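[recover] target loaded
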């Protein structure tokens, strides 16, 4: 048993009987977590819970914590944000500290963190989006869904996006939950959005939006969609809108999914039921529900179409549509591949949103990175060829899954750290300065970190502003304003 094993709790009681070691400060492991989204907080939570002496410092490049829980979860899904309460409990632990406004790789290097800590866990997520790689992608009117989500959720880097919503038809490329989120926000009645924490500026832009038709386009078929039944049901039941699904797309699928896993079967059955429902029945229900006969908005799913080119307007400046290749599927289930048939068609639209996935970026030249897969090469969270360096979340496994997936993944990485402490792979007999050493480095570079109590002041200000507007909060979107508020 290594020197860290005396105070490691795994599942049951204390492992080992070296109680006298517990008072020795030299045996307190100093762990650093980079990134304060779900992956970072769940990693910290697990280590603190199962090791009585470990101290965990969390570094975050923004002044404010919580990553995609704050900036990725749709404003009309407040229940998903309840995990913030758990994260706040972790951050308030006397063995945990939060340092916002610190960009690792620029303000402090990973090597410097490794000097200051016994273990460093990289949990900084996926900070970029995958590109389409087709002509016309950079035309005006084409945006990544990631940037659009960041815009309406108040992510500082996207606050000046100003998407042009002056068209009737939007095309979203992708069949995942993010694509459905974006479609729902574009078509939601303003009364619903006004009660959420959507940013004031995006609410104003959506109030002037002319978008009333949204098509979600995917390369593969109904059996390969990546969204879940909850999000689909929400979209189908959105007041004042009607789904337009072609019954021909679902021919024979009822039998094909009989033996499929239950979630896939129920999802497909809901799409089939929606496709077969008469439009006038749907609209009658929608009109009764909204007590108004306003012109209906509509949305639909388009299958087996792969984007080939964003088509420009006559003056060559804006998007006017997307040329897609029709595809056929080879194989079945999730592994089915979309093969172009040679046929193409043009889909008209004035707004294109690409929702084909997020992408992690390398953080520091000293950290191994696989650019093809967009992950840090690792084994159970242990970074390959870098003892004492770990990773969790999307940068570990790729940008897939929901918060619960990330929780389990982060617990696994935390368990690897705890096992390495127990086995003596991480030598805690040598004391490390942790945030003391890093604080000196940051001061020398003119960087002032934001503490968790600083964040709580920002939080209180946002909630107060929201209350005045009848919302849960009004997010501050400018980091400079956040820093002024806390006297930085």
């Amino acid at each position: 048993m290594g020197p860290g094993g005396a105070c490691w709790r795994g599942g049951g009681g204390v492992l080992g009987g070296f109680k006298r070691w517990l008072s020795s400060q030299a045996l307190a492991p100093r762990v650093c977590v980079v990134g304060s989204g779900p992956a970072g907080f769940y990693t910290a939570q697990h280590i603190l819970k199962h090791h009585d002496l470990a101290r965990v410092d969390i570094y975050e490049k923004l002044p404010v914590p919580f990553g995609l829980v704050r900036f990725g979860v749709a404003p009309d899904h407040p229940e998903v944000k309840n995990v913030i309460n758990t994260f706040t409990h972790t951050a308030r632990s006397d063995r945990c500290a939060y340092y916002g406004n610190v960009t690792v790789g620029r303000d402090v290097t990973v090597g410097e963190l490794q000097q200051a800590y016994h273990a460093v866990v990289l949990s900084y997520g996926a900070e970029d989006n995958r590109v389409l790689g087709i002509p016309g992608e950079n035309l005006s009117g084409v945006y990544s869904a990631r940037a659009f989500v960041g815009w309406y959720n108040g992510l500082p880097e996207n606050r000046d996006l100003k998407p042009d919503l002056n068209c009737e038809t939007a095309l979203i490329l992708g069949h995942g939950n993010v694509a459905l989120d974006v479609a729902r926000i574009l078509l939601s009645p303003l009364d619903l959005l006004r009660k959420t924490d959507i940013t004031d500026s995006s609410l104003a832009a959506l109030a002037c939006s002319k978008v009333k038709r949204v098509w979600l386009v995917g390369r593969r078929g109904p059996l390969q969609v990546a969204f879940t039944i909850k999000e689909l049901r929400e979209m189908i039941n959105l007041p004042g809108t009607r789904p337009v699904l072609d019954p021909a797309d679902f021919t024979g699928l009822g039998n094909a999914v009989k033996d499929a896993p239950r979630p896939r079967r129920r999802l497909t059955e809901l799409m089939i039921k929606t496709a077969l429902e008469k439009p006038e029945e749907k609209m009658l229900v929608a009109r009764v529900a909204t007590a108004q006969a306003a012109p209906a908005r509509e949305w639909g799913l388009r299958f087996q179409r792969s984007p080939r080119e964003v088509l420009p307007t006559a003056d060559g400046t804006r998007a006017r549509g997307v040329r897609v290749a029709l595809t056929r599927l080879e194989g079945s289930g999730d592994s089915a591949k979309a093969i172009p048939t040679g046929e193409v068609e043009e889909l008209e639209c004035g707004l294109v949103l690409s929702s084909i996935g997020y992408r992690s970026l390398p953080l520091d030249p000293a950290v191994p990175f696989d650019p093809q897969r967009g992950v840090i090469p690792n084994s159970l969270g242990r970074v390959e060829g870098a003892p004492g360096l770990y990773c969790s979340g999307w940068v570990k496994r790729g940008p897939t899954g929901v918060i619960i997936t990330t929780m389990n993944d982060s617990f696994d990485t935390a368990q690897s750290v705890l096992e390495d402490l127990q086995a003596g792979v991480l030598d805690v007999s040598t004391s490390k300065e942790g945030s003391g050493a890093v604080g000196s480095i940051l001061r020398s570079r003119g960087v002032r970190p934001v503490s968790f109590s600083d964040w709580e002041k920002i939080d209180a200000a946002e909630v107060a502003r929201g209350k005045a507007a009848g919302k849960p909060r009004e997010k501050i979107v400018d980091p400079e304003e956040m820093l002024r508020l806390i006297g930085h």
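[recover] notes: Residues 1-25 have pLDDT under 50 and may be disordered.
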